[in-house]
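JOB MANIFEST
job_type = single_chain_structure
chain_count = 1
residues = 219
[input]
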Amino acid sequence: MKNSNHPFFPSLSKEGKTGDVDRINYFYSIKYFCGISILLLTCSTAPEECGIGYIDINGKCYNQGDVDVLQDFIDNSRGDDSTTTITMTLDTDGSGTIEPFELQPQRWNENGRLTMLWLYDDTLSGVIPESIGNLTQLDTLNLAFNQLSGEIPQSIGSLINLNYLYLHINQLSGTIPDSICNIIPNIPHFWIEYNYFCPPYPDCIPEAEINPQNTSQCP
């Protein structure tokens, strides 16, 4: 894992989580070579008609709600002047605009549902959208090393299929929602350190898994 320029946590070490570090470093090394070819990881079906709640993209059916969540991340990363903080290296089609399928890497299942979203170090900003709870088929969510702020939405507790949840090294703040206890017992890979979360913390998460946090702005 690389060093962080986080103002309060300049040097990071995750000894004891070597497997997770290897997984992060692997995806980090390939993410900028993926481009729109990430669709090769897609197993979405291609029926004659996609049906209600699905859209046809290049002959494949995708859940409209899942695509909308990706757009919400993009919209939340725009400033008042409509410019985006998201790295433009993801603009694989050269349109000058980041589109949902350009957020890399991502994986979809045969039912057109998003199962992996790996947005590590994509310079995302703004809040995590409440709509994140619609991604009920996700098994991997990595939002680490971004500029995300605000609170974790209550809807995080709907992601019951998660095995990997990485939220570390952002500017997330407030209290950690109790709804996260709906999923924590089933997540073997969970990092939330190096944010601005205030106690009290949910009882379902050992404090050692939460700290360090910058609590200087807490009440």
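[summary]
The first helix runs from residue 18 to 34.
The first strand starts at residue 54 and ends at 57.
exit_status = 0
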